[in-house]
Protein: Replication restart DNA helicase PriA
Amino acid sequence: MEKRCPVDQSELQSQGKDWLCPTCATRYRVQGRCLDCGAEMERLQACGASNWFCPRCNELKSRARVETQLVPVRE
Ligand SMILES: [Zn+2]
Ligand SMILES: [Zn+2]
Structure:
């Protein structure tokens, strides 16, 4: 799935776990929130596929139960 910078709508480039905007040089990370309980979720990478795990529900969630957003990384 294609991701775009929320500021300038540029197409983001994949950089390991992060996404880089070539226009404003901002790095973003995808953060997931559980639609069932509202908790912040952990992203699990396995064999190229990514799954979302909710620590509060204590179970893996399907994409449809996860609200994802791009959060700027400041380091
Ligand atoms: Zn940008
Ligand atoms: Zn949950």
About this structure: The radius of gyration is 13 Å. The chain has one domain: 13-72. The chain has a mean pLDDT of 92. Residues 34, 36-37, 39, 54, 56-57 surround zinc ion (ligand 2) (CB under 6 Å).
